[in-house]
């Protein structure tokens, strides 16, 4: 496993998440769907934990696709994981929690983009 590619993938999803949940894209809608602004936590803790989870996801994806995946196969695997596993699992939880379909689209869409981006990173440099 190439540690540098794993770190690049984790950093890329962390950066995309920052943009995804910013007011530029879906941040305002996400706050609205959550019933207002989310409680404030210490930024170092929030961002540190978020990056750690991105890193865990990137390591698991690296194990899943192997050391030298073909580009198309890596992106396809990213789509399957992001949409078929993560977003679908969120959908189950969101139904029981009675969260909105729009919130599911925002959160599930981010993870679909995250894992497809992992596929791009691993497919190009793996």
Number of strands: 0
How far is the N terminus from the C terminus? 9 Å
What is the molecular shape? globular
Q: How many domains?
A: 1
Rg (C-alpha, Å): 15 Å
- Low-confidence blocks of residues: none
**Helix fraction bin:** over 70%
Strand content: under 5%
- Structural class determined from secondary elements: mainly alpha
Q: List the total number of helices.
A: 5
Mean pLDDT score? 94
Give the SSE string: HHHHH
Largest beta-sheet details: none
Task: Write up what this structure looks like.
The protein is mainly alpha-helical and 126 residues long. The protein has one domain. Helices cover 79% and strands 0% of the residues. It has 5 helices and no strands. It has helices at residues 3-20, 27-33, 43-65, 71-97, 101-125. Helix 1 crosses helix 3 (43-65) and helix 1 packs antiparallel against helix 5 (101-125). The longest helix is centred in the middle third of the chain and has 27 residues, at 71-97. The chain is globular and about 45 Å long. The relative contact order is 0.20. The model has no long low-confidence stretch (mean pLDDT 94).
Set out the fold topology.
Blueprint: H1 3-20, H2 27-33, H3 43-65, H4 71-97, H5 101-125
Helix pairs in contact: 1-3, 1-5, 3-5, 4-5
Quick summary of this structure?
The chain crosses the membrane at residues 6-26, 46-65, 71-92, 104-125. The protein is an all-alpha fold.
For this entry, give a set of tags.
transmembrane; single chain; transmembrane helix; DUF1761 domain-containing protein; mainly alpha; 126 residues
